[in-house]
């Protein structure tokens, strides 16, 4: 074949190829027109999605116990602990005396003295009654009657018989003995109260109600005179207004610190509903919270009070749910994703969304785990379009090629040439 014929043949082939391309491109409903080139795709995966708050906090004791002292009613004696002492529940903290007990003691002692005086008077009176009673039967004659005896006996001593007078004396003595017995019981009761006060006033000691470390002692006796911090540690921080909408007591936390080799775990134990500072329009209000740290066992790594930690609060968590990257989800009226079918089509599937976090979107209703989906395409996608993908030469093998039918070989070859 001469050179002219070769040039003519190549020119004709080129013209034919160009004409075929133009025809396929301009043909209505052409497959070429509806074929998109897919470079990025992925699968619906079974995954765990966590919605979190990322913040920071500081290690502090869980509790602070403040001890108060009333200097108006009590006299302080001395402290029995020093700052930094580790104490347990029941440990003595300080001694004092109470002025109220002293006044009560004085009143009780006065009451006891009066009762003992009454007893002495009754015994003296009973003695006179017995003396007069004895003289009534004495041969030496009736003794002179005491004025008090004559006044209290309800009988006429000049006209009534001796037996009647004796009977009245017996009744009066019985009455007086009852009164004396009553006063004796009263004196015993007063002695018991005085003994109790004496025991207290000698050394009234205030003791700790919890384990902890003595943080502060106010030697000027200004309240609180002692502050005790617990040995259990917690994490304290502050939530923003937006974070407050998601945070709840009981949520799981994870924390890490440069001072600790292990990650800390726990839960949110307390959230203040009022800001740390007075609410203001000029700044973002911050709400204090406290996270309790779970013990790691009998041997726990000591935490340094005041050390800073990076804190993650898990506000929502879904485990083992169908998940796709957020960029795979498209929006018009309803959310949808494009599924790449085994027959070579790109089909639109509406979805029902679930939890969205960490760049992932949970699919409650839609394509299943394992389905291949289209990531964000560079061009507009028509539903039920054909798609092609780049050749992955490392996967092009002769055995794979032989699996295609002749028709499939021609079809895929033309699609590849024409689309590119």
Description:
The protein is α+β, with helices and mostly antiparallel strands and 420 residues long. 32% of the residues lie in helices and 32% in strands. It contains seven helices and 22 strands. The chain has helices at residues 3-26, 99-136, 147-152, 162-202, 241-244, 398-403, 406-419; strands spanning 35-37, 41-43, 45-61, 64-67, 74-79, 86-87, 92-98, 204-207, 212-217, 226-229, 233-239, 252-256, 264-271, 287-293, 308-325, 330-331, 335-340, 345-350, 352-357, 360-365, 372-374, 385-388. The strands form five sheets. The protein has a six-stranded antiparallel β-barrel. Strand 19 and strand 20 (360-365) form a beta hairpin. Helix 2 runs antiparallel to helix 4 (162-202). The longest helix has 41 residues, at 162-202. The chain is rod-shaped. The two termini are 32 Å apart. The mean pLDDT is 84.
The total count of strands amounts to 22
What is the number of helical segments per DSSP (H or I, 4+ residues)?
A: 7
Strand order in space, largest sheet: 3-11-14-13-12-15
Order of helices and strands: HEEEEEEEHHHEEEEHEEEEEEEEEEEHH
* CA distance, first residue to last residue: 32 Å
Global morphology: rod-shaped
| Uncertain residue ranges | none
Tell me the helix content.
Answer: 25-40%
Q: How would a crystallographer describe the biggest sheet?
A: 6 strands, antiparallel, barrel
Average pLDDT reading: 84
Structure classification: alpha+beta
Which percent band covers the strand fraction? 25-35%
- Indicate the radius of gyration in whole angstroms: 51 Å
